[in-house]
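Dear support,

I submitted the protein below through the web form. The confirmation email said the job was done, but the results page showed an empty box. After a refresh the structure appeared. I'm attaching both so you can tell me whether what I see now is the final result or a partial one.
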Amino acid sequence: MIVCHCTNISDHDIRAAIDWMRTSDPQTIITPGKIYHALGKSADCGGCMPLFLDTMRSDDNLEVPMQLRALRARPTEETDHEGRSQGYRISQQITAA
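What the results page shows now:
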């Protein structure tokens, strides 16, 4: 089935790229951009992205390696601001001064 008409990528191409990337580096994080790059293509209009992602998710080799699953830190009160300083906006910096 053709997933991306702009670049002529099929579901078979996506699965083959995922299998190739997983075989070459078992710990790699696989993204749509990496799949396009592995196929020597680039995204054009983005209309295929929902189907592209569904095709990726249906592949058993897409799983995040076990060693990398716990790397995401859980949000706490201290990190709710995403690492930005208190007055990160210019308007807040002017009024604070």
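Response: this is the final, complete result; the empty box was a page-load delay. The longest helix spans residues 11-24.
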